[in-house]
Amino acid sequence: MPVNSTIDHCKVPNNSTYEVLSWVMVGEFVLGLPLNLSVLYIFIFRYKFWKNKSIFLFNIVVADFLLMVILPAKVYHYQNGQRRSPINAECKTMHFLLFLNRGASIAFLITLSIDRYFNVVHLGRRNFVKVLKKTPQISILIWVLLLPLTIPTMVKTFECCNSHGRKEETPSHDVTDTFREIVYFAQIIIPFIILVYCSVRIVNRLRRKTVGEKTKLRRAVLVVISVVVVFALCFLPSTIARAVLLAVRLMDLQVEEDVVVQVYDSLMVLSYSDCLLDPLVYCFCNSGFKDAYISTFCPQFLQRKLLKADFGLGTTTTTTITTITMNCGNRTVSLPIVEK
């Protein structure tokens, strides 16, 4: 397939679009950095995550910081008409941090969702995830296992999607490109299927529970649904756009490609908002973290309201009084039975 090699596909096709995207990333950085710093402070100094079995949540915070590191550089390149850094070492480093962040966020969020699934749907059975949460070494192992899946994304041409028909490829180059794309799509599609399955099973379990037990499970439902929302907003759109972009490039449709490239890059910028949405998951996962955060950073007049507010997530008990009437000779005795 003939390809126009004179086109620099790493230059922005429309300066105005990328100027806007750069300012969107500035907003994400300005909001995300203090938010994640405050979350990190709570986890370490107030909540002491190592004592409260919140090691996986802490790792999600660390993953979000990896994203914060690269945003200023992305802003700089977009404002200078480049889709990626022209410096090879910097380009590879940014790709590595971006996809290590994405892989770690997905891995630990999926683990939390599976933990909720076993606690609700298979209550009483041995929950291996709960055992893993108590072991810091498991978190280190997850990070190590992510490294070989992240390395293929460090190739220079990834950001510009310069593969499969863009230029003459050696067999090794073609294998690297293919493996890279498989990893990219698999790390989104497979976890999303798992999340949807866990959500459906937990919701079905909730429907079969009595009124008194539903309040205990409502938090589990919202945790899994919140993770699904994060996936649906941050990761799925850019994944679909990349599939379309690859298809357009294989067909060598340059005009259509310029449009799809802008859509893809816009949705990638949207995916960076996961560093803003992840703290919502922390609150849903752990009411202790929510209380510690509110008591530390919220004013006094808001603390009373927010700490008392249950938001439909609490574990309040419902008291039901049932009266049993017994005939004892000529007397009738009423015995109340209290159910919680």
From TrEMBL:
Transmembrane segments annotated in the record for this chain: 20-44, 56-76, 96-118, 138-155, 182-200, 221-245
Leader sequence segment: none
Any one Gene Ontology cellular component term annotated for this protein: membrane
UniProtKB keywords: G-protein coupled receptor, Membrane, Receptor, Transducer, Transmembrane, Transmembrane helix
UniProt xrefs under Gene3D superfamilies: Rhodopsin 7-helix transmembrane proteins
A GO MF label: G protein-coupled receptor activity
Record membrane topology: Multi-pass membrane protein
Compartment annotation: Membrane
InterPro entries with a match to the protein in the record: GPCR_Rhodpsn (IPR000276), GPCR_Rhodpsn_7TM (IPR017452), HCARs (IPR051893)
Family: Belongs to the G-protein coupled receptor 1 family.
Protein known as: G-protein coupled receptors family 1 profile domain-containing protein
